Each structure stands twice: as structure tokens, then as C-alpha cells.
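Many introductory courses stop at the sequence. We go one step further.
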Amino acid sequence: MNSAAAIETEDEFRARARAFLDEHATGLEYEQPDPRSANELEANKAFQQKVAEAGLAGITYPKEFGGLGYPKSYDKIWREEVSKSADMTTQLTISHGMCVPMLVEYGTDEQRAEFLPDAIAGRTVWCQMFSEPGAGSDVASLQTKAVLDGDEWTINGQKVWTTLGHVSDYGILIARTDVEVSKHAGITMFIVDMNDPAVEIRPIHQIDGGKHFNEIFFTDLRIPKDWMLGDLNNGWRMATAMLMYERVAIGTGQTGGIQTPMYRELSNEAVKRGVSVDPVIRQDLMRLYSAEVCKSLMGMRTRAEQQAGKTPGPGGSLGKLAGAMIATTYRDLSLSIVGPGSVAGEDSGKWSKAALTTLAAGIAGGTNEIQRNIIGERVLGLPREPSVDKDAPFKDLMVGTQR
């Protein structure tokens, strides 16, 4: 890392970041409609490449791997300034909020040198592949297998709900590497090339009209031996760490400070439609405002812990759950404010799609029920739910298609 004397001051950095954002973070322009999010992603990538060219990407990551090597306080400054501008990198949340941190923390120097510079700069996009048709909330029951064959791993199996898998260059995957041990103990994490012909990607049609989720099929996919991420059969701990990063990314976003975007949108809409004087609407608006403020404060605390050197923990589930509950409040309140026009008016498409999209908030990144279990057990210290298959060898379990 550069010494403090060799880098710009925090005030200089803030001024440079603000000048860049004022010029470039002016909102996204891309072809609509965009059901597979491909056009928005290209716009996000183009913006991120400008960020990298301006020397503002990967602020805290090592300079030799494509970052700036700056102290964590500079990342806080960047987030604070980004919060004042239009969101320009929504579709890079998985790459930058989940995959890049895993490569930084657990990757070898060779993996970091090979993958991080392009990922940080937005030249490559990454996805996450955990869930399977028979292993959703119970991810440890996954059946995708990886077998070491000489200097390569051979992977066979299926993943599901893979966001942006169809436009990703690489992915992080967990697979079964030992069936003789318990289901949590025989899992390993890998890096895979999403453009390999042995990877088949099929879109999943969503209720809101989107198609950015996918089913992924692996048929004798071969990857280099050194694309294993972390240690052999330590994939469950790795997956847990990545899920913590995921919940922080979803629960806190890429910005800093107090953020109340849903309240602002709906309060403006209520004024526009002349219903802002309705006492029930006003009360619901304040509930939404209060919830967004509380979520922002939780996000600020989580980010502060990260800046203090702490790896994300189970507390990230608080922000994730709060976000899902806020989405539900937003949905119900938006339909109340817009009224019948939300499904039959000229702008019904906007409001009905937004309402349908909120349904994913309580599923993506772990269901609300899973988040409540994590909070209860790992934050509040309540007793764990009983597990009858904890110590049984995976080969003896009746899971998925394994009978």
C-alpha cells in the first residue's frame, strides 16, 4: 500500500471524486426495453471503466492487483460522494460486492493478478453459482460435483437462479468434492469460465417480465487445477463468507450516508396526485421514511466495521431483511398512492412492474425466513434449529435426485 505521504489528501480525493461524478454520473442511457439487463450492464461497464481510467476504482485494493492501495477512509469518502449522484453500477453489485472481495481475501496472488484488474475496472463481469433445484435454502445439499483429473477439475451438475450468468465472463461456484463426509464438509469453491462450451445457460422468465436469472448446466466442464478458490473441502466456510458479503452488498448498497430514495419517490408522487393530505398516506410515508433511515444507519455501521478490518458477519442479515421489508412497504404504498392507475392507467407499466419486482427482495440473497434464523441464532444467540443430518455422510442422504 502507498504510504500516506505518497497519496493525495482526503480533501483532494473528495474534490477529485466529486468532479468526476458531476461530469459522468448523470444517469443511465440505454436501449429499452431491457428484459435481460444486458443493455443496462453495458452502460454500467462503460461507466466503471471511466472510473478506473480516472484512478478511482478499487480504492482499498492492492495497487499491484488493479486497485489504488488507499486507506479505508477513502472508500468511505467515495461512497458518500456517490450517494449524491445517480446510481450507475447497479448490475455490477455481484461482481464488486461479492466476487471481487472473495478474490481479494481468499485468492492466491496468481489468481488476484489474473482476475482482479479486469474485474475492478468493469472489463469483466462475474456471477455467483450456489443454489440448485434440490438445494435452495439448504445449499449444503448441493449435488454438482467436481472431480480432480490430473491438472484439471471436471465439473458436472446444475445451478439455478444465477443472476446475469448469461452476460458474465466468470463465475464463482461451489461443488461437491467429497461424498464420504457430512454435507457441509465436502464442498469446495471454484472459479469457472462462463464462456466455455461445456456451460449451457437457459433464461428464467420472471413475473415482472425480466429474464436476468438463469439455469446453468455443466457437462464435463474442465477448469485448471489452480482455479480452486481457497482450500479443498473448505467451501462451506467460503460460501458462508461470500453470503455475508452478498447480504452486506444488498443490504447497504454502494453508497454511504442516509438514503431515502423510495420515500422521496412516493412522497413526490403523493403530492403530484393530490393525496399527500390523506392522514393514512402520510402515516405510511413516514413509516417508509423511518425504515429507510434505520436501514441506512445499519448500513453505515456495517461499513464502519469493515473499514475497521472486520470481515462481514451475520449482522449483514439485518440490512438484507430490512431491505426486503422496505420493498414490501413500498409496493403496498405505491399502489395506494397511484390507485387504479397502477394497473390500468397510462403509466401502469411502471408501477405494476415495480410492484412485481419487489417480490424478489424477500428471496434473492436468502429468504426472509433464512435471514430471521441467522439473526436469531448468530446475532441474538437463540438455540439453533435441530439438524438430523448434520453428521451423516452426504452419500447416505436422500436429497435432490440422490435416492
